[in-house]
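User: Please predict structures.

Assistant: First:
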Amino acid sequence: MYSFDLVRPTSMEDAVAALGQEDAQPLSGGQTLIPTLKQRLAMPSTLVSLSAIAELKGVSVDGNTLTIGGGTTHAEVAAEAGAYPGLAALAGQIGDPAVRNRGTIGGSLANNDPSACYPAAALGSGATIVTNTREFAADDYFQGMFATALDENEIVTAVKFPIPEKAAYIKFQQPASRFALVGVFVSKGADGVRVAVTGASNDGVFRWSEAEEALNGNFAADAVEALSAPSGADMISDLHGSGDYRAHLVKVMTKRAVAKANG
């Protein structure tokens, strides 16, 4: 790594002030940033750790809304988000125990890795991403591979999930990284069915609108059977699988997620 200073503020006010320094960068769980620093692909002069800010942590329920602090780890979400079983189950599948006990939901959503699980949960739930300055609907937040609507050094402070009637997440896991080769999150709530796909597209997480339309008419795995898979030309093609293979998996994982949600 290059040399850098590390500061560990205990309030959002102090964190925002620290991030105002030239070349400062926020550090949440560090599961992506630390390897990036080791490869010398980032050169911050100051890392601003968010791990000591109590207001960024915790899971709470208010009516039909589950709110998770941006600094809450995957393991904590898995253990404490029982009001939303589909989301808790997703968090329990992320990485390995070391990753789950360090990585945070805010860090994952800020990074928006094209194969990460939480973007599918947020988009598939119609969640609201809250920052230190504003709020975004998930449909407006994700803007492509590793791209979001966040401004530089804007901090994800919380995520608000409407709790649906039914929901489930299924992923075809790449065994070495445990990222999703293709992952599908489905939910059925008051505003209808949402289907979000991660790991597959060159544009990052996306909603499969054709499946949503079919499932709004009949929320059953059979409703997806008659659909054509998304175009393989729009999908990631690499040593783990071709675009056409990933497109096929989108349909297969959607059917399995619906069956699990109905289970």
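Second:
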Amino acid sequence: MANKVEVKELLDAGVHFGHLTRRWNPNMAPYIYMERNGIHIINLYKSAAKMQEAGEALNKIAASGRKILFVATKKQAKEIVAEHAAKANMPFITERWPGGMLTNFITIRKAVKKMSSIDRMKKDGTFNTLSKKERLQVDRLRAKLEKNLGSISEMSRLPSALFVVDITREHIAVKEAQKLNIPIFAMVDTNSDPREVEYVIPSNDDASKSIDKVVSYMAESIIAGLSERKSNKDAKEDNKEEKADKAPKAKKSDDKVEAPSKDAEDKKATKEAKADVEVPSTDAEDKKAMKEAKKDVKLESKEETLEKAADSTEEKE
């Protein structure tokens, strides 16, 4: 379960500050509390409720062993998101969003594999056989791939959810997730459309304190889900070990009761063998029949058979 969100902490972090009133999106009206000095003020009670709802959902996703991809390419959010996502052991994109990251995931995986192949080249000595110019090109490629895709190198399949900071800026990521029906959790400011997102967190997505407050809460919920998964796994393993310890003892007792001795088995086998062997008959008629059966049988030739057949037909006539 996610921790309770304190409204006072959100207020201190400046989560309630929205954009200028002239830049607002009318669909954010249910989450706006008031207007002050030409700026919309977000209702923090709704923000707290939505944060808790999103935190519980992320907790369940993490507990099921699936991945959540964090996306934040704006300057003030990069380091914060990278730090908290790394703590939660989740993939993140803080540089430019690579087009087709989700919809063309196979190609992205090929680029990630290219990184590992370059690493293998350096380990096995193949890299040193290249010319100086080629080595320089490979190093540059490796650095570029590391910068853009290094954080998702362990993501072998599509994520089960996206957490986005500023959906207006990350509109490409949002569209790709929508195409693949991947649920989106996002910090949505007053200038964005909340209808694009399944789990809306109305909040200030420009101030670093506000971003840190929301992202850290989400990361804590994920970490709690992961620890819950680990404890359940350990409990299952302990139960298996207990069953394994008990099983051999029960088997041994069964063997003592049921298993017959070797001598008894041998006696039974000899009796069956004797029963199968035919005892020679002592009767005179049987002996005579056996002698006749052993005599050689003379087979008739084809001509003799035809002659006998002709004779039998003449006699009948």
